[in-house]
Each structure stands twice: as structure tokens, then as C-alpha cells.
Specification:
Blueprint (H helix, E strand, L loop, with lengths): L12 H14 L4 H8 L3 H8 L7 H11 L3 H9 L12
């Protein structure tokens, strides 16, 4: 008898896009800054954030690098519904 549990589904493309947007904003990055740091176009970043494009593993890896984290970290944060916040800066 198989007692294994079915795999937990990963985020949908809209959930992942929103999660990436939340992480980007928490780090104080613009779409253009994340695109430059990731080595992809701003149009691709924007399309992913609004859930309009499927995200390839390779592109997710580039975005993760641009965010200063690993793909695994991004997914674990999503699974735990953890968000990060940017530090408060004195103006």
C-alpha cells in the first residue's frame, strides 16, 4: 500500500509572478533594476510579474540571482507564504 502523499502543487504562474513582484518591491528594486541584475529584459520581468508568461526554470534562476537568492529560496518563501520587507531608511 502506497502511503506517500501527493506532491504539493507549486505556485501558479500568477501566484509566482505576484510573489516575485512582492520580493522585488521589498528589496526596493524597480523592474528595470531587477532586469539589469538578472540579465533579462524589463518586458520579460513585467510579463512574469503580471502572470502573463510562463516562467522557464532558467529565467527563474536569473531572476533569483537578481534578487540575491536561490530559486529554492524563492519557492520555500512562497510555500511558507513568507514575505520580506525592506529596511526602513531615514529620509
Amino acid at each position: 500500500m502506497d502511503r506517500s502523499h501527493p506532491p504539493v502543487p507549486g505556485p501558479s504562474k500568477s501566484e509566482l509572478g505576484l510573489h516575485l513582484r512582492t520580493l522585488r518591491l521589498a528589496l526596493g528594486l524597480t523592474i528595470a533594476q531587477l532586469a539589469e541584475r538578472s540579465g533579462i529584459s524589463a518586458a520579460i520581468v513585467e510579463a512574469i510579474e503580471v502572470g502573463g508568461d510562463e516562467i522557464e526554470r532558467k529565467v527563474l534562476g536569473k531572476i533569483a540571482t537578481g534578487l540575491g537568492m536561490t530559486t529554492g529560496t524563492i519557492i520555500r518563501l512562497w510555500e511558507r507564504r513568507v514575505t520580506i520587507t525592506a529596511p526602513d531608511f531615514e529620509t
